[in-house]
Amino acid sequence: MESLTEAAEPEPGGRTARPPLVREFLLVAGLFLVYKLGRRLANGHTGDAFHNADHVWSLERALHLPEEGTVQGLLLHSESLVRAANTYYAAVHFPATILLLVFLYLRRPRHYVWTRRALAVLTAAALALHLTFPLAPPRMLPAAHLVDTAQVYGPSVYAAKPSTDSMANQFAAMPSLHFGWALMVAIGLIAATRSRLRWLWLAHPLLTLLVIVGTANHYWLDTIVAAALLGLALMVVRMPSATPAAPAALRRRLLPAPAHPATTEAPAAARVPAPWSAAPAFRAPPDALSASDVLGRAPIRIPVQVSHTPGSTSVAAAVVASAEPVTAEPVAAGANR
């Protein structure tokens, strides 16, 4: 049975070092604190937030987007369903993102660095919009005629009055980081795993979309802007390249170790002695000359009569005579007769 989090095969010939744990913990915690403090700075712009909400609501109607009340009407058919949606909104957003980062850090370090950077870029862009474009959520807009499901049915993560909320900025609806982070969770897991069921992770952002709209915490345009910002972040942030593995280390991983280590010395039967190597018996070199060859190459030819009698010195005398510059007179025909 396949698992949704079955890690993909490592890249051949490459590896990625896992970032130091303490440094990554401090970095992620620091980015989260900066984001929370930035959202707090956007508090207090009540007039601008409601003015912008009227414009967003009118723009959605001009674009013929479905009304948020249609989704909320489906939830209101069951109180249990409404409570489940409120719980999902309050309890899944941060834990799902943290679990994604932990999983990628342990199993896929290269995808972890890529995902963390993309989330940082997305969150920074969202924070800039929160500061420059405060927006009241649809549950606060009188023209929307929507129910604040968290306050009516619970549980709620927001205070009853935005002015008394010291933990969150309720006028930071545009863009929806609930949807942006959920979409990045799905993209990160799809990219980092190889299971055929990995596409089911898209159910997480889809369910998040229905929850944030049905509970009247976000407009449709909030999710569209979040998806566009994430797309831009993924265009800017590239996947880190794997570090090429050393050739020797790669060979050790790919090739099995031999049963008997190879030796540089050849077997005795395969060793051939050199032509002039010492041997128990003397070996004449292949280009050695015989006595007749020496005589045949002598510069002066002296006609001699070779005697086949043992002990005769005629051959030796001929050799000596050929080495001395003497002139021999022709032998008269029949002299020895």
Automatic annotation (TrEMBL):
Topology class, membrane: Multi-pass membrane protein
Source organism superkingdom: Bacteria
Pfam families listed in its UniProt record: PAP2_3
Main location: membrane
Keywords: Membrane, Transmembrane, Transmembrane helix
Subcellular location: Membrane
Transmembrane segments: 88-106, 118-136, 171-192, 199-220, 226-250
Domain Inositolphosphotransferase Aur1/Ipt1 positions: 56-235
PANTHER family in UniProt: PA-PHOSPHATASE RELATED-FAMILY PROTEIN DDB_G0268928, PTHR31310
The name this protein goes by in its record: Phosphatase PAP2 family protein
Species this protein is from: Streptomyces beihaiensis
Lineage per the UniProt record: Bacteria, Bacillati, Actinomycetota, Actinomycetes, Kitasatosporales
